[in-house]
Amino acid sequence: MRELGSRISSARKEQGLSIEDLHVRSKIRPRSIEAIEKGNFEAIAGGNVYIKGFIRTLAEELGLDYNELIEMWEPVVVPPTVHNPRSSYRPSVFPFIGAVVMVLALVAAGVYYLYLRPQPQLPPVTPPQVNKPPVVEEPKPTIPDVAPPAFVYVGEQGDREVYEVTSWPLELVVRVKTGNCWVQVVADNLSSEVTLTAPQERLFTATDDLRMRLGRANVVEILLNGEALPRQTGDVRNYTFKKPGP
To answer: What is the pTM (predicted TM-score) of this model?
Structure first.
């Protein structure tokens, strides 16, 4: 996977682009680009779906072969280690003589306890002391920190469903579950459209706002910054994703 990162880094430098320049063109966060070039895919949130989308976008921006790059990317899955400890049992073996000595010692102790031990003196009876129970201070309740939601449904404006997104740049994944779906996206005033067939998916990014139109909304799954929108119904649906505020 380091070969993949080196290939992207070399292509970027050959074109005289900095990581910030590539971020502006691809809308991918600089730290995600840097992680891909270093082969540090564990640092990218969102899992394999986001990584594949980033590789596709970078290949298009740098003029590289997407299929060749994706063959270099082989996620490493480390199986959990299972320990099977073996318990060994070593029975203790006592010699016969030791057993006889132990029995005699027990008999002698019993005779002493029953016949030879001195009678105990009874202590004077004293009234029990009454102790007040300690005062237990109840802990003060703590209010846990609640993270803000990734997005909030605002309502409908005309024929559009409007969502306010808290984290930007925005990363939107459209995944077709069955059949096919026509998708049109306007991200930061740049328009694109594509027809996806199951099980295809596509990643779209934006820094200010994103509008989307789906031809068959009931056959797709939408992930917004890694979190799924409620399942859609019907066919043609229009969406607007914007920053909080008017």
So the answer is: 0.44
State the pairing for strand pair 180-187/190-197: antiparallel
Q: Which residue type does 177 have?
A: K
Residue type, 242: K
C-alpha–C-alpha distance, residues 50 and 45, integer Å: 8
Residues 18-56: tens digit of each pLDDT: 999 999 988 989 999 898 888 888 888 878 888 999 999
Domain ranges of the chain: 2-72, 151-242
42, 95 Cβ separation under 8 angstroms: no
Asked if 52 and 69 count as a contact pair (C-beta separation under 8 A), the reply is no
Task: Output the CATH code of domain 2-72.
Answer: 1.10.260.40
Instruction: Give the per-residue pLDDT at 76.
Output: 43
